[in-house]
């Protein structure tokens, strides 16, 4: 049942990717970004809203849960302090953490060879995605980076990251096919997906391109995996229970996002605040997902 549901979701994911590709051609950046913000603020933040519930699962007892809670909150504080002290370091850390997290979520069930090789592959996959996205929207990246850090990423830096991550990603993929750890069919399918995403990134605005991957390729599959972990199976009842339990944390996160946007006068782009909040929640969420999969 779970396997069939996930297979059907893949078809749904591809349909919405093509639909939003068409949508980005038909409408201007203002409409695109409005849809993207709605997706990120709703499903994007929601997918990390049950981290504490996941930490409480198992038979570890209250002492271990409070230890995990302390680590979780400490990571959030560390992210905030890092951004205050060095916005550039914070954003680079966000990109690296998100890259690993995206790679682990998308490829975790497909690539299981060696812990170190897996980690390199996940990181290469995520960095390749970010590099494609940034390369396709250089002017938008410059604008957000200037507000976030006061500096920008050069075309050379983005192209270099794109080239190096592509080299690692495709070399390891071909190695796994050669060693018969993965099929040629999986390699070609993932290659098609990456090509499709690049076309989407090139056509849409930076924020909508990010939202398409973040929501349909990452957040919703992550929610399904979390429901399966919490309830033991993926059911409609389990999904509804997940959403109900996540609403309080989600509401607090959205209120914090809107408050920050109003309180920091030098920030004019709502997308800038979105990335700051995502950094604060991505780091602890990545740690929780690592614990969950372990």
3D architecture notes:
It is a single chain. The protein is mainly α and 294 residues long. Helix content is 85%, strand content 0%. It has one domain. The protein is built from twelve helices and no strands.
**β-strand number:** 0
Q: Any idea what the shape is?
A: globular
Number of helices: 12
Largest sheet: none
The helix fraction, in percent, is over 70%
- Rg estimate, integer Å: 19 Å
Stretches where pLDDT is under 50 for at least 5 consecutive residues are none
Helix/strand order:
HHHHHHHHHHHH
Strand composition percent: under 5%
The secondary structure category is mainly alpha
Cα distance spanning the termini: 23 Å
Mean pLDDT: 85
Count of folded domains: 1
Keywords:
mainly alpha, 12 helices, 294 residues
């Amino acid at each position: 049942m779970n396997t069939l549901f996930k297979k059907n979701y893949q078809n749904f994911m591809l349909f919405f990717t093509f639909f939003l590709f068409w949508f980005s051609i038909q409408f201007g950046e203002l409409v695109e970004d409005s849809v993207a913000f709605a997706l990120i603020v709703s499903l994007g933040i929601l997918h990390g809203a049950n981290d504490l519930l996941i930490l409480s699962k198992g038979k570890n007892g209250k002492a271990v849960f409070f230890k995990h809670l302390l680590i979780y909150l400490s990571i959030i504080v560390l992210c905030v302090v890092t951004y205050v002290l060095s916005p550039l370091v914070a954003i680079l850390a966000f990109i690296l953490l998100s890259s690993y997290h995206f790679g682990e979520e998308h490829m975790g069930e497909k690539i299981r060879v060696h812990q170190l090789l897996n980690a390199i592959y996940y990181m290469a996959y995520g960095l390749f995605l970010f590099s494609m996205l940034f390369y396709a929207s250089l002017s938008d990246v410059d604008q957000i980076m200037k507000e976030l850090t006061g500096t920008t990423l050069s075309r050379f830096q983005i192209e270099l990251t794109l080239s190096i991550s592509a080299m690692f990603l495709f070399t390891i993929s071909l190695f796994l096919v050669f060693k018969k750890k993965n099929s040629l069919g999986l390699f070609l399918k993932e290659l098609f997906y990456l090509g499709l995403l690049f076309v989407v990134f090139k056509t849409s605005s930076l924020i909508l391109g990010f939202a398409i991957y973040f929501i349909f390729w990452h957040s919703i599959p992550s929610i399904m995996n979390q429901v399966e972990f919490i309830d033991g199976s993926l059911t409609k009842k389990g999904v509804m229970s997940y959403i109900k339990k996540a609403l309080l944390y989600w509401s607090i996160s959205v209120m914090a996002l809107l408050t920050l946007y109003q309180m920091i006068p030098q920030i004019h782009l709502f997308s800038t605040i979105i990335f700051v909040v995502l950094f604060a929640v991505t780091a602890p969420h990545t740690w929780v997902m690592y614990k969950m999969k372990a």
